[in-house]
Design a protein that fits this description.
The chain is of the alpha/beta class and 407 residues long. It is built from 16 helices and 16 strands. The protein binds adenosine-5'-diphosphate and magnesium ion. Residues 223-375 form the Helicase C-terminal domain.
């Protein structure tokens, strides 16, 4: 399959970065459907090229009709910036432009940029609602994309998504893209779409089967030392470390820097400028380690990121898929390691059942486990129980594919 077989115009294909030669599975599936005008519900693994799967058809359509606008909604500011850049790389040569609209940036500057009628808006919901209240009209939006749709739902943005969708053209085309999918999301999406085509990218062709996952059982109190050891053993250029609570990110960062590992932190308690700086330093190699909360788990692409470490397992099992999916993107190999203590057994089991992988626990040399497993009496916080219930209601991509009816 080549891009020229997907009803894309020559000038558009020529504008693709030269690293992009053949379409990925989800691009092959989604591009023709979107170009022919269908609503689309697309499920594909992390790093499988979803941005261009919706970006190219949008650009193609806008080339035909410059009065129309497209709107892409994403859950985080970092993702908005990344998607906007990826789209602009292809849109600019077609004399089309994308504008990033998210919080933390001066609103008046955004309003000035909006006055120039950008063809594509890439936005987080909060800032967009704010701009609508200040007079922004979305009536020319004929293409609406919800990227990382499940995350938009999980983060509580759905009411905003609905408000925004109501402001767009009633004749619009709608596409939903995600790497994980739940029944709740499917239900919530229904009223926003008309007869959507459900597309699931072929498991075999998906790009992140090359992640080597290792899970180490360690004492809760040894995690910092174990992390330092793992980082030193890896000696990788870049290591992304996921942490659960943003409150712990800064102190862990300090401890790593003290151990002479250049480390930056990215979480929601930082200003937008600090967040951008931390990500930039990490991407450019100035810091070897980036400690991040799940703010960064979805969608963010870091070129050739070799190693992801979970300092603790995420509360929601599907977040694990997203976290480890930051590595081994676009066909590369990757390593994902997790530090697990006895208290995280429930989270681990939820991940095992969602991914249908064994994920055995190993010992980490030099870190004997002396903590005792908790007794049958559950000491879990109620929030955890809720997370597990939610997780049980979710489907993995595999389950999805086994059910031909779901297509
Ligand atoms: P997803 O949204 O599915 O997680 P992205 O759209 O962020 O994935 O793409 C991940 C990486 O793969 C990006 O660097 C992108 O440029 C690259 N990419 C996208 N499409 C292709 C392709 N057809 N061939 C090679 N690389 C691609
Ligand atoms: Mg994406």
């Amino acid at each position: 399959m080549s891009f020229s077989q997907l009803s894309l115009s020559k000038t558009l294909i020529q504008a693709l970065p030269n690293t992009i030669k053949t379409p990925t599975a989800i691009q092959t599936l989604a591009i023709p459907e979107l170009i022919s005008g269908h609503d689309v519900l697309a499920l594909a693994k992390t790093g499988s090229g979803k941005t261009l799967a919706y970006g190219l058809p949008i650009i193609e359509a806008l080339k035909q009709n410059q009065d129309h606008q497209a709107l892409v909604l994403v859950p985080t500011r970092e993702l908005a910036a990344q998607v906007c850049d990826a789209i602009n790389a292809v849109a600019k040569p077609q004399s089309l432009s994308a504008l990033c609209l998210c919080g933390g940036v001066d609103k008046e500057l955004q309003q000035q940029a909006l006055a120039k009628q950008p063809n594509i808006l890439v936005a987080t919901t909060g800032r967009l609602i704010d701009l609508i209240k200040h007079g922004l009209s979305l009536s020319q939006v004929h293409y609406l994309v919800l990227d990382e749709a499940d995350r938009l739902l999980d983060m509580g943005f759905w009411p905003d998504v609905q408000t925004i969708a109501d402001q767009t053209s009633p004749k619009r085309q709608t596409a939903l893209f995600s790497a994980t999918f739940s029944d709740t999301l499917r239900q919530q999406a229904k009223p926003l779409m008309s007869a959507p085509k459900e597309l699931v990218a072929d498991q075999e062709n998906s790009t992140n089967s090359d992640i080597a996952e290792t899970l180490y059982l360690v004492n809760k109190g040894s995690k910092t030392k174990a992390l330092i050891t793992l980082i030193e053993q890896q000696a990788a250029k870049q290591i992304l470390v996921f942490i659960g609570a943003k409150e712990n990110a800064d102190s862990l960062t300090k401890k790593l820097n003290k151990a002479k590992i250049t480390t930056a932190a990215l979480h929601g308690n930082k200003s937008q400028a600090e967040r951008e700086e931390a990500l930039e330093q990490f991407k450019s190699g100035q810091s070897q380690v980036l400690i991040a909360t799940d703010l960064l788990a979805r969608g963010i692409h870091i070129d050739h990121l070799p190693v992801v470490i979970n300092f603790e397992l995420p509360m929601h099992a599907e977040t694990y898929i997203h976290r480890v999916g930051r590595t081994a993107r676009a066909g590369a190999n990757g390593i994902a390691m997790s530090l697990v203590c006895h208290g995280e057994t429930d989270a681990l089991n939820a991940i095992r059942s969602l991914t249908q992988r064994e994920l055995p626990l190993q010992d980490l040399e030099g870190f004997p486990v002396t903590d005792k497993p908790s007794t049958g009496e559950s000491k879990r916080a109620p929030r955890d129980k809720k997370a597990n219930r939610r997780t049980q209601n979710k489907k993995s991509i595999k389950q999805f594919q086994r059910k031909p009816k779901a297509r």
